[in-house]
């Protein structure tokens, strides 16, 4: 693509359920959306095997297949989908500027941010190899597949406590692996974990390796106080050490929390910048589900359409 300036009604940055849903609504409203997928087209669902909790798929669907259907639907209504990253933005004026990795300059009357968030991982080779084969970063998404089985959760904050509590209703034993000698979770979540009989907390413990060839069979643990190494037979391993929103390029312009999640005006997708809207996991650190991301993508497109109409752009 040449380094000319391109003028757009609606720029969507990011794909996944939020970006593609925003594109479907924006295209149907004749906003002529241009969507840049980013480095991971389809987002986190591309590393999710079975999706069974999204309405409309009674038999479940593979995450990548679902995202391909979302993409096709967005394309059907005329979304211009481009497989490139937006690497820089300038929201200082009424026309919002953005630049792609190839240096292409975009001038957009409205921008919908749908860059999502990425799970933090331990960085183990076995964790990567067994991802979606027993290793997961979402108990609400995948816990159902491990009902009746022994599982482990790693982490010490609210996310880990919530995941362990959720899994305790499905699994006979949930092993919570905590690196320190205390939980970082809120008091109420700590109490809930410690009162749940089938949650076994392993204090001062680190994960050395997840065991198994084609599926998780166990985990090797190191007690960092005693130096003792032990093997725990499990079928599911849930990493709950947090997420980081993919919002770095927006932080100089958009109000955000201390982690980097973008702030929106309650009940809307509007940010502090007129004409810039945030959707999906880039602004949601609570629910982080495909269906909620799609819902905020819809909101962003409708908010953007109203903005463009009010400003006389369309």
Structure report:
This protein has 314 residues and is an alpha/beta fold. The radius of gyration is 21 Å and the shape is elongated. The chain is built from seven helices and 19 strands. Helix 1 links the parallel strand 1 and strand 2 (34-36). Helix 1 packs parallel to helix 2 (63-76), helix 1 (16-28) runs parallel beside helix 7 and helix 5 runs parallel beside helix 6. The protein has helices at residues 16-28, 63-76, 125-129, 139-142, 158-168, 187-195, 290-310; strands at 5-13, 34-36, 50-51, 61-62, 80-82, 86-90, 96-100, 105-113, 117-119, 135-136, 151-154, 174-177, 199-202, 205-211, 218-223, 229-232, 236-239, 243-245, 276-278. The chain has two domains: 5-118 and 243-310, FAD/NAD(P)-binding domain; 121-239, FAD/NAD(P)-binding domain. The strands form five sheets. Strands 1, 2, 5, 6, 7, 8 and 19 form a seven-stranded mixed beta sheet that branches. A five-stranded parallel beta sheet has the order 10-17-11-12-13, with helices on one face. A three-stranded antiparallel beta sheet has the order 14-15-16. The longest helix has 21 residues, at 290-310.
């Amino acid at each position: 693509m040449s380094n000319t300036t391109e003028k757009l009604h609606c720029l969507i940055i990011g794909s996944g359920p939020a970006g593609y849903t925003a594109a479907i609504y924006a295209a149907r409203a004749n906003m002529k959306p241009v969507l840049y997928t980013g480095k991971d087209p389809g987002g986190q669902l591309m590393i999710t095997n079975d999706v069974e909790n999204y309405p409309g798929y009674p038999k479940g669907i593979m995450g990548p297949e679902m995202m391909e259907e979302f993409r096709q639907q967005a394309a059907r209504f005329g979304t211009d989908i481009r497989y490139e990253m937006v690497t820089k933005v300038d929201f200082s004026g009424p026309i919002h500027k953005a630049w792609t990795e190839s240096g292409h300059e975009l001038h957009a009357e409205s921008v919908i941010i749908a860059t999502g968030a990425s799970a933090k991982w331990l960085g183990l080779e076995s964790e990567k190899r067994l991802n979606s084969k027993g290793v997961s970063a979402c108990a609400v998404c995948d816990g159902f597949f491990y009902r009746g089985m022994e599982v482990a959760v790693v982490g010490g904050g609210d996310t880990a406590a919530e995941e362990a509590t959720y899994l305790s209703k499905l699994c006979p034993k949930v092993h919570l692996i905590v690196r320190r000698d205390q939980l970082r979770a809120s008091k109420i979540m700590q109490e809930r974990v410690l009162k749940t009989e089938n949650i076994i907390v392993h204090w001062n413990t680190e994960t050395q390796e997840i065991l198994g060839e084609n599926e998780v069979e166990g985990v090797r643990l190191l007690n960092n106080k005693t130096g003792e190494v032990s093997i725990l037979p499990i079928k599911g391993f849930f990493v709950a050490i947090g997420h980081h929103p993919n919002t770095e390029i927006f932080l100089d312009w958009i109000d955000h929390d201390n982690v980097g999640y973008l702030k929106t005006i309650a009940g809307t997708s509007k940010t502090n910048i007129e004409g810039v809207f945030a959707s999906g996991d880039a602004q949601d650190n609570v629910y982080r589900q495909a269906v909620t991301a799609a819902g905020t993508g819809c909101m962003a497109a409708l908010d953007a359409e109203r903005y463009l109409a009010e400003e006389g752009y369309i």
